[in-house]
Amino acid sequence: MIWASLLKVKAKYTDGQTAEANILEVEIKLDGLILPSGDKWRYCDIDLIAADKSNGQLFYKNGEIKGPGLTLMFEGGMADPARDFLGRISGRLTGDSRWHFVRWQIVTGAAIIGLMVIFYIFYPYVNRALVAVIPDRWAVRAGDLVLDQLYTEYSANICQSEEGDKALNKLVEGMKVMDLAYDLRVQVVDHHQVNALTAPGGRIVILNGLLQEAESVSEVAGILAHEAGHVYYQHPMQGVVNILGFSIVGSFFGGDAASIAIVVLSMSYGRDMERLADKKALETMLENGISARGILGFFERLNKKKKSNVAAELEKLLSTHPLSEERIKYISEHIEQYERGKKFTPFLTDHEWQALKNICKKNK
Amino acid sequence: MSEIFEKPASENENAHHTIEYVGTVGALLPIVLMNLLLTMITLGIYRFWAKTNIRKYLWGKTQFDGEAFEYTGRGGELFVGFLIVLVVFLLPLTIGMTYLLQLYPTTAPYIIGAFYPLFIFLMGIAVYRAQVYRMSRTNWRRIRGAQLKGSAAYGWITLKYAVLSFITFGLITPYIICRSWNFLMNNKRVGSGVIASDVKSKPLFKVWFLTWLAAIVVFGSMIGVIYYGALTSNAALIVLGYLVMFLSSAVLFIWFKAALFNHLFNGLRYQNMTFSFHISPKDLLVFSIVNALILIFTLGLGASFITQRWTGLICERLHFEGRLDFTEIVQSPEFGPNFGEGLVEAFDMG
């Protein structure tokens, strides 16, 4: 008898037809709940709406999602032993339905993660395939567009002088051992920044600041070879595809977390590209009889100039270029391996080098 | 079917109906972290499920008369809703615009400009349709909410008021807010129970006009400061100008916002139950500053906690008068749309 009375608890009942609630006594059996009307709710047909320490709200779904909407609510006012018992049952019950839910989540989660892993692995191939099918003249046009915009934005002047152009041409001719998809078109632009950049379609821009910073022609040749390495691998076009692809994915699926993931993704591809370009550059220099010592010195000087402050640290972390130390080590190893005891003659005569260095003088 | 034993205690008394939010930061945190992780791993696709998880939590911790609301939406519904909008709206639009810009680089911006009213119209529809979905997925005692049909009408209202706002330099803002609010609220149901609002904008105009004047004076002078700073290349002046603009925009509008919230909520009714709500400008300012700090220190990832704080604030300060007759409130015949909120996603307003 005690057993029976223990398993009768008061509950608030709603029928899903009106918002009215009535209190009734529910009998708790091992396989379900019995309502005063004699209706039986089997535990497998019950879902939990909400629960906390003292309350539990159940929903009778009877197999239908848009079902009749019967609910029972057990409130804190119940006798303690009965509440404990019901708590244990609804714990098992929520445990069951939770497990079902969790299992479903694990399966979809695994499927999504699997797809993403496949995407991460195959993305570079997809990108390369896309770049391969883009016609060369499109790449050339894209490069022109990018540079035109850049020039107008910074109101940059292209530097030209008869002898300077000749010297530059000689350097560019040297890069042809690379078997490039496009004709190289190299321009010097009057800007104080120490930098060089590559646009799609074989267009390379050297900023005057870099020419002034360089102490020998082999340094400039090294930079040019590096940029030509990007051209060889069609990195600029890959970058365009990346940016387009990521920004389309990003804007469609948006959100802060997504953009973090996208930045991380594009970063890692960036570093790989720089390493490839470095490798190609060193091969090309070797074939042209240009020592890598020049470019090594250039990087070392730049590295010393860099202040070691928080901003620099942050830049290191976020930079798409390989860390300078890493680069310096790589180039040193190359020199160690291939340039031992070799003698190099400068690629340009002194006169040609001076002409190149002063190519922007006229503009001033 | 039921044998009635007795009425629940809470419904026999003449006690006021109550609303309470019982969620906690500690319980929400694991949900937010898991959402963040899965959203990053999936490049953002999980966001639809993430949003659903948060809503399930917020709804489930909001209790009317001690009984929780229930959010029955699913992430898949939001995802499919978004895919539909992506295919029928976003993709054609992006492709069309790109082609236009390529073919007619000089005239295309004007053509796109001509689409601007259409966008405002669609934004109105997006806001309304999101409510249609959300209300249909909101249950209490398994009685469904509903937002009646009316998205096209709301689109027109939005467009009309945008034009009005433009030609009156924003002076008419209280009128626009009150009318839009009334339209949205008067079309809401919970079961057969009717939500009603008939707020007039007149009481808000005084505080709005003062706010408007102050904003013009402050922003005008700060734009002057920034302009002068730019002319004399004085970076400190420019930074100061922007800083004052940013900080004052938070403070300036507080009086109006507090008045607006009080006014809008106080004008609400559900059946014969009336709402009352009060917050002082000072309380709202402190509340907003804490929100801003949370956002800043979590780099925007704490947005869900802000939503929770808002839910908590509203529940804490909302009081009801008048007893509802629950026998009169019968189940809504509508099940709502099968998919939801795609347009809102498209405009990034979710």
Outline of this structure?
The complex is a heterodimer of chains A (364) and B (350). Chain A has 364 residues and is α+β, with helices and mostly antiparallel strands.
Explain how this protein is built.
The complex is a heterodimer of chains A (364) and B (350). Chain A has 364 residues and is α+β, with helices and mostly antiparallel strands. Helices cover 57% and strands 14% of the residues of chain A. Chain A has 12 helices and 11 strands. A 7-stranded antiparallel sheet of chain A has the order 4-3-2-1-7-6-5. In chain A, strands 8-9-11-10 form a 4-stranded mixed sheet. In chain A, a hairpin with a 7-residue loop joins strand 1 and strand 2. The longest helix of chain A has 54 residues, at 80-133. Chain A is elongated, with a radius of gyration of 35 Å. Chain A starts with a helix and ends in a 7-residue tail after the last helix. Chain B is α+β, with helices and mostly antiparallel strands. In chain B, 62% of the residues lie in helices and 11% in strands. Chain B contains 14 helices and 10 strands. Chain B has helices at residues 9-12, 25-41, 47-60, 75-103, 108-114, 116-136, 151-167, 173-186, 205-231, 235-252, 254-266, 281-297, 303-317, 342-346; strands at 19-21, 62-64, 67-71, 138-140, 143-147, 188-190, 193-197, 268-270, 273-277, 318-321. Chain B has a 10-stranded antiparallel sheet with strand order 1-2-3-4-5-6-7-8-9-10. In chain B, helix 2 (25-41) runs antiparallel to helix 3 (47-60), helix 3 (47-60) packs across helix 4 and helix 11 (254-266) crosses helix 12. Chain B is globular. The relative contact order of chain B is 0.14. Classes of the chains: A alpha+beta (364), B alpha+beta (350). The interface between A and B is large, with 47 and 48 residues.
